[in-house]
Amino acid sequence: GTRVDAEALARQLGVPVAPIIASRGRGVEELTMRVGELVFGGSEGFGKAVVSPTRAPAAASASDALVQRYYRARELLDGVVEYAPVKHTLTEQIDRWVLNRYLGIPVFLLMMYLMFTIAVNFGAVFIDFFDILFGAIFVDGTRWVMSSVSMPEWLIVLVSDGLGGGIQLVATFIPVIGFLFLCLSLLEDSGYMSRAAFVVDRLMARIGLPGTAFVPLIVGFGCNVPAVMASRSLGRESDRLMTISMAPFMSCGARLTVYALFASAMFPSNGSNVVFLLYLLGIAMAVGTGYVFRKQIFTREVTPSFQEMPAYHIPVPRNILLTTWFRLRSFVFRAGKTIVGVVVILSFLNSFSFDGTFGHQDTGSSALATIGKEITPAFAPIGLHEDNWPATVGLFTGVFAKEAVVGTLDALYSGPGEPKGDGAPDIGGAAIAALVSIVDNAAGLADLLLDPLGVSAIHGDEDVGAAAAEQGVATSTLTNMAAAFGTQFAAYCYLVFVLLYATCVAVMGTIAKEAGWKWMVLVVFWTTSLAYVTASVIYQAGTLPSHPLFSSLWIAGSLVFMAVFIHQLRTIGRRALPGDLIRVVQIG
C-alpha cells in the first residue's frame, strides 16, 4: 500500500537512489553499480550530502538531535511517498492487543515463556548429543591416543581433560545458545521485540533500565551464557553492563541440579519450597544489583528513550539463519577461548597432587581437594564444619560448571568409584548413544512445556535409595551429606552461596568477551562477596542464640564491609568500565 518515488527522493537528497528489496535480492545489482559510480567516478552532490554542515550536531542533547532527524526525514518524505488509503492496517489491529494496557503484560509473558521454553528445552534435547560425542572424541579419544604413545601424565591431563574437556564444555552450550539466538532473531525480525520493550519499559525504568533488558534476564533462568550475550541487543553501554551484572543472579538450570541433590538429602518434605525461596532471592539480588550499580557507577547516564515501532512482517528465513549463525559463531570462537583456558587450569589442579603425581580426579588427595581442606575454616561462618571439606571442593569445581558440584559431591562423599578402563574409546558406540539421547530427550519434551524450569522434579522422597537412584548418585552420598552438614539450615545457607557466588567459566568468558576483563573481575568479586556476606549473615542470624556475641559482631562487620564496598563502587566500577565494548549500531 506504499509507493516511493525514487526519482523525487534522489532530487531531494542530491544523490542517486536505487530502490531495492534486499530480502528478495531485487535491485541489489543496481545499488552496487550506483555505489561504484559514486566512489570511483566522484560526485559533488554526494560529498555535500555526506559532509553537509546541516548534519553537524545542532542540539544540546542526543535526544534533541534524534528528534530533529525524525523531522528532517518527514520533510524528505513529503511528495516522495504515497500511501494507499486503508482503514486499519494489520499492525494496528495486532497492536490493539499487544500494546493494550491490560493485555500487554500477559501477552509479553506468554512470548517470553515460549522463547524460554524453546531455547532451554528444545536446546536441552541436543545437549547430551554434543556432550557424549565431543567427550568421546576430544577427551577419551585424545587420552587414549596420547597414552598409546607413552606421553607423560601431566601432558595428557592438560590436553585431554583440560583442552578436550574445555571443548566439550563449550560444545554443550551450542544448542541452547543457538535456539536462543534463533528465537531472538525471530522476535526482532517480526517487529515484536520493540513492542516487548515498550510494554515493560515503565517497570524496568524503576532501576534505570529499558524494557528490552527484561528479555536477557528471563533467559538467564535457563542459562546465564545466552543471557549475557542477549544483552548485546541493548543500545546504551550502561544498560548492557548493568544487565550483564544482573544476569548471574538468575538461577540457571545447572544450579537446579544442585538444588535437587540437596532436596533429596536434606529437605525430603519441603524441597520445592526451598527452591522457590532461592529463585526469589536470586531475583531480589539482581534487582538490588541493578539499583546499586545505577546509583554508584552510572549516575550521569539518564536520558529519555525513543522506541520505533516497525510494522509487523513475516521474518525472512535467510536473514534469521544468518543472524543466528553469526552470533553463535561469535560465542564459540571468542568466549570459547576463555572457557577452555580456565578449564585447563582447573583440570590440572583436579588431577595433580602435591606429591608430584597425577590421576587424582575428584579424590581427597588432589591439589584442588588439598586447597579446599585448607580454606574450609573460612566457610565456618556459613555453616561448613572443618571436616566437611568436600562441600568446599564442590564450590571450586562449580566454577567449571554448576552441575559439576553434583558429580564432585557424589565422588567425595561416596568414596572412589570404579577406575576407567585403558582400552580404546568406542567412538562409534558413543555416536550411536549421542543420537539415541536426542530421541530420549525429545520424548520428555511435552512434559517440559508445562514446567520449563524443571522444578516439579524437586520433591520429597523418604526412601533414600530411591532418591539416590533418581538423582543418579550413590546412596552413601545422601547419607554422608546429611551427616556432614548436620542441619537443614546449614545446607540452605550453602545453597544460598551456590546461588550467588561466582558464575561458571562459560559465563565468565562470555562476560569478558562482551564487556572486557576488568568488568568480568568486578562482577565475579561482587557476586562472590555478596554470596559470602548473605549466606553468613543468614546463618549467623539463625544461630544467634548459640553464640550471640560472635554472631552479632559478624553480622555488623559483614554489613559494614558491604556498605564500604558499595561506596567504593563509584571508583572501582568506573575504572572497570570497558574501553573496547562491542559496539552496537544505533541512531542518535
| SSE arrangement, N to C | EHHHHEHHHHHHHHHHHHHHHHHHHHHHH
Tell me, what's the shape?
Answer: globular
Structural class: mainly alpha
Instruction: Give the proportion of residues in helices.
Output: 55-70%
DSSP strand count? 2
Strand fraction equals under 5%
Mean pLDDT across the residues is 79
Overview of the molecule:
With 588 residues, the chain is mostly helical. It folds into two domains: 2-85, no CATH class; 112-576, no CATH class. It contains 27 helices and two strands. The longest helix is centred in the N-terminal third of the chain and has 45 residues, at 104-148. The protein is globular. The model is unreliable at 49-60 and 580-588 (pLDDT under 50).
Question: What are the main properties of this structure?
Answer:
single chain; 588 residues; mainly alpha; two-stranded antiparallel ribbon; 2 strands; 67% helix; disordered C terminus
Blueprint of the fold:
Elements: E1 2-4, H1 6-13, H2 28-41, H3 44-51, H4 62-77, E2 81-83, H5 90-98, H6 104-148, H7 153-172, H8 174-190, H9 192-199, H10 201-205, H11 214-219, H12 224-230, H13 237-246, H14 253-265, H15 271-296, H16 317-351, H17 367-375, H18 389-397, H19 404-414, H20 427-443, H21 445-449, H22 464-471, H23 475-485, H24 488-500, H25 505-515, H26 517-542, H27 548-576
Antiparallel strand pairs: 1-2
Can you describe this structure in just a few lines?
Helices cover 67% and strands 1% of the residues. It has 588 residues and is an all-alpha fold.
